[in-house]
Each structure stands twice: as C-alpha cells, then as structure tokens.
Amino acid sequence: LIDLPFELTILGSSSAIPAYGRHHSTQHLRVGNKNYLIDCGEAAQNQLQRFKLKPQRIDAIFISHLHGDHYLGLVGLLSSMHLLGRKRKLDLFGPLGLGNVITLHLKYSDTVLRYPLDFHPLDVETQVQIYEDKYVTVKTIPLKHRVPCTGFLFREKQIEPRLRKQRLPANLSIEQIRKLKKGEDLVNPQGDILYKNRELTMPPRKSRSYAYCSDTVYLPENARLLKSVDILYHEATFMTEKELRASHTLHATAGQAAELAKKAKVNKLLLGHFSARYKDLSPLLREASGIFKNVYLAEEGQVFMPDE
Ligand SMILES: [Zn+2]
Ligand SMILES: [Zn+2]
Question: In degrees rounded to 5, what are phi and psi of residue 167?
Fold first, then answer.
C-alpha cells in the first residue's frame, strides 16, 4: 500500500448547462498534502463543501479555458478564500484573459484580496511545464477547441528508493539514510563498502500520473503525450451517432475518448463533460467500453486513484 495519497475527486462533469443534478466541470486532486483544483464550474464551492474538501487547502487552480462551464465558479471561490482570511499564496493558471476577468470583478466589488494571487497565463500552443512542487510537475496538453484551451498532465516527481526497514542497521546516521535514498552504497572513511545499496533498499515504485483533457476535438496525435498515464480524463460530450456535431462544435465522442485511451495505452479512462441531451449515461459507457475496457463515468462524488 502506498501511504502517499493520490486522489482525484469529481465535483462536476456536466457540459454547457447543469442537467439532471449534474454540475459543471470541476475536479479536486490531492497528491501528498498538496491540493489542486482543475476547472472551477459554477457550483464548485458548494460541491467542495458537499464532499468535505477545504478551499483554504487548495494550493493551485488550473483553468482549461474560458467557456463558462469551466470557470464561472472561480471569482466566488477566490472571494470566499478572502473572506475566510486566507493569507497563503494561491497559484492560478489559465488563459491570458482570465487575469482581466478577475481584475475587473475585484475592481467593481472594491476588493483587495488578503492573499497573494499569482496568475500565470498559459501558452496553449505547445506542451510546456507550468508548475512544480515537492510532489508533482504539471505540464500542459495542447487541445483544440473553439477558444484557446489546454489540458493538464500531473506527474509525480522521481520517487526515492524504498528502505527495507527490517534490514536497516540500527545506528545509521541521517546522512547515511540520505545516501541510501539517493541510491548510493554506504562506505567507511577509507572508501570500503559497508552496505550495498540494493541490500538495504527496494526499487522506487512507479511515479503516478493523471491527465485532464477537456474540451477538445479528437486529437489522436496527443496519444504520444498521454502515453501510459495511470488515469486519463477525456471529454465525451456526445456519442458516436453525433460525431459530426462533435467535430463541428470541437468536442469529442465517448468512442473517440476510448480510441485515444487505447492508442496511448493508458491504464484507466474516465469519461466526462456530458451533454444535457443524455439523462442516462450508461450508453456512453457502453460505447467506450466496446473499444477500451477499463473505463468509468466521471460522476460527481466519485474518487479515483491509480491502481497500485
Ligand atoms: Zn465545456
Ligand atoms: Zn468549452
């Protein structure tokens, strides 16, 4: 069992109009003790409360694009953080125009945020690394939609070898433990090997990853960037019968999401961004599972983790 959490909570996955109790695109990702929000639909604050996730713990927010169903909850959330007395810096990533939208809101409500809000405009043309902390790096995933839009690829950083606790000599110094975690052998001052690294450590576990792709037309060429990710969330606004409509509106189908998952050999596929035309979502799941087996509906309240 891995004790470091890597948990994705779906807070909303409705496209365009909230329908059948489904709310707009919003997700919460926790890795270690860091918390990230991915898109921030209208009901984001209420959904965070409903699923007992604390807004003040959010370290960074990533907004894919400026269609309302992906960010209209943002100003409300930022204001609440202010009202709750946040002091800690918040990083915000999104298309260039997002900075103006927020500045205008704050100006007309005569609000000066009590915390530093660091806005980082996104380059949506090529894949770039935009964020890094103790646990993860985040890269953009170029998408093609009616307005500038980008996905996000979260990847755990290089993991240290695990110590074989039962085999560790009792008197090791912190410096020696550090050396083991770097993969070095332990030597005495004369340079003789006291312990070989592989006797005291196990290979590091695989670094976990999550890719968020919404909204976009089907881009098979992205399989390269998504290769072998643990979890891929991909928009599936329509079913294959509406493929023409999907490509006209620069959206994708459940079948296309599954094709991409198969091409990229991901472990798990989550479908989302459901159109209000589908009350029952099971046909979308059926359509995708005919192409790619390990597929789930990203329904709000569900928590997804990479397989161990
Ligand atoms: Zn959308
Ligand atoms: Zn959109």
Answer: -95, -10
Q: Would you say how long the chain is, in residues?
A: 308
- DSSP character for 221? G
pTM of the model: 0.91
* Six-digit token string for 271: 């479908």
For ligand 2, the distance from its centroid to the CA atom of residue 235, given in whole angstroms, is 10
Q: How far is CA 163 from the centre of its chain?
A: 29
- What spacing in Å lies between the alpha carbon of 201 and ligand 1's midpoint? 46
What is the whole-number distance in angstroms between the Cα of residue 52 and the centre of ligand 2? 27
Q: Can you read off the two tokens belonging to residue 247?
A: 């490509």
The rounded distance, in Å, linking the Cα atoms of 142 and 120 is 16
Residue in 213, 299, 206, 216 with CA at minimum distance from that of residue 261: 213
What pLDDT sits at residue 2? 63
Per the listing, tokens 């493929």 go with 243
Buried-exposed string 103-138: b where 16+ CB fall within 10 A, e elsewhere = eeebeeeeeeeebebebeebebeebeebbeeebbbb
Q: What dihedral angle (degrees, nearest 10) is formed by the CA atoms of 41, 44, 46, 52?
A: 150
User: What's residue 306's pLDDT?
Assistant: 95
For the chain, residues with pLDDT lower than 50 are none
**Active-site residue numbers?**
69
The pairing of beta strand 209-213 with beta strand 129-132: unpaired
Q: Per DSSP, what are the bridge partners of residue 65?
A: none
CA distance linking residue 236 with residue 104, whole number of Å: 33
Q: Provide the terminal-to-terminal Cα distance of the chain, rounded to the nearest Å.
A: 7
Whose atoms come closest to the Cα of 217: which ligand? Answer: 2
Q: Six-digit token pair at 79?
A: 């204001």
Structure token pair of residue 194: 């006291």
